[in-house]
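Q: Okay, next protein. This is DUF2520 domain-containing protein from Solirubrum puertoriconensis. I've checked the sequence twice, so it should be correct. Can you predict the 3D structure?
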Amino acid sequence: MVQAGHQVVAVWSRTLSTAQQLADKVAATALHGDKPDFAAVQADLYLLAVPDDAVPTVLQASKWPSGALVAHTSGALPLGVFAGYPQIKGGVFYPLQTFSPGRALTWDAVPLCLEAADAAGFAVLEAVARSLSQRVLRVPSAARQQLHVAAVFACNFTNHLLGIADALLAGADLPADILAPLVRETIDKAQSNPPFAVQTGPAIRRDASTIEAHTQALATHPTWQLLYQQLTASIQQAAETGRQA
């Protein structure tokens, strides 16, 4: 935000140390506690960058300035979460990206998905978003929830599958980076083609002997074995129903 020319007035966290750490980086006031008084902080936009389950709690526990524009950053929560708070204007400022401590991101390529209760609120969100990214979209709650589910498949589940693959390699004393060219080619191909249309592997070929051998090899990892079987069935079902087209 600061690099894009915005002034961060205050940073809030339940613990002072966490709030102060970030506030010091952006020359802002640090607020802390379970019942923050945001009414004492004058700002054009209040962003709730907290876990999804915490948004209703923070909304209820906080004191807000009348007419404040408050936006959560969740992909899963609807705009309706603000329905019980007529004194504020609700909005959504959802960055479609995964964030990890210590990893820098280039914001100009991050899709920012917006929604607001009124046109004035949306205009504020859009102005902030366009100062950060070249990809700004208006995404209503129902579509954003579907987008969030898709993102979990594309990001979180993919990372978990890579973790399983990494563990299997370690069990065979093979280097973790041996799969890197394969993973890159898979992602590149899926981005330039309909993914179902370029599916490869024993499941799409219905190579029963290989599938059985893999299943037996996973006997000591029953959860992974079940996952292998379910993904195999899903691939084959997609092929049968013509989802590749």
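A: Here is a summary of the prediction. The longest helix spans residues 141-171. The domain at 144-240 is CATH 1.10.1040.20 (N-(1-d-carboxylethyl)-l-norvaline Dehydrogenase; domain 2).
Q: Noted. On to the next one.
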